[in-house]
Design goal:
This protein is of the alpha+beta class. The protein contains 5 helices and 7 strands. The relative contact order is 0.14.
């Protein structure tokens, strides 16, 4: 039953399970190498939340606690549990943890999968912001990735979006100031 899911802040002992689900759910261009991902667990602002059912890892939210808001960098459910409503429950529980706004990245709505993913987040109260956004390359030899920012509980004004983007880049991408110029800055 969904009510048996338990939310907990994770530690290193959960990492292998997290990375296994991450590798199945995200393309290489949207995740770090295993070592760099593990290194994030040492960052005080990086909060990995795992969701278990009967002691088994079924999903996670990897987020950044930024003073003004929270940024979900990765959210995934084990493929065996997808389509059962567990993802909605996990994200709803996370949103109730405190009253800070939440942002996350999604692929632009260019195909049926990305459109369904955006619709999923919209059902939970997220808003799609129509500003240009590029995630920096997360692995050597890769290119930046065009994405969109969704925000909860409301849409962002342009200056709010720019403020959030700068804070995301400083926290999650190591002050990627090169990405604050050109494509990511109008």
């Amino acid at each position: 039953m969904i009510s048996e899911i338990k939310l907990k802040c994770s530690d290193r002992c959960d990492f292998k399970g997290i990375f296994k689900i991450m590798a199945e759910a995200f393309p290489d261009s949207e995740r770090r190498t295993e070592k760099k991902q593990l290194d994030l667990f040492n960052n005080i602002n990086y909060k990995p939340y795992v969701f278990e059912k009967d002691g088994v890892l079924i999903g996670f939210i990897l987020s950044w606690e930024i003073s003004d808001f929270r940024f979900i960098e990765h959210f995934a459910v084990d493929k065996a549990y997808r389509g059962s409503g567990i993802g909605s429950r996990i994200l709803s529980d996370y949103l109730l943890m405190n009253e800070k706004p939440v942002c996350l990245e999604v692929e632009p709505p260019l195909n049926s999968i990305s459109k369904r993913r955006i619709a999923f987040y919209k059902r939970l109260g997220f808003m799609l912001n129509d500003f240009e956004y590029f995630q920096p390359a997360l692995q050597p030899g890769q290119k930046e990735v065009e994405l969109k920012i969704m925000s909860y509980p409301k849409i962002l004004l342009k200056e709010q979006f720019n403020f959030y983007r700068k804070r995301i880049f400083n926290a999650a991408y190591g002050n990627s100031s090169v990405y604050m110029e050109g494509k990511n800055n109008e």
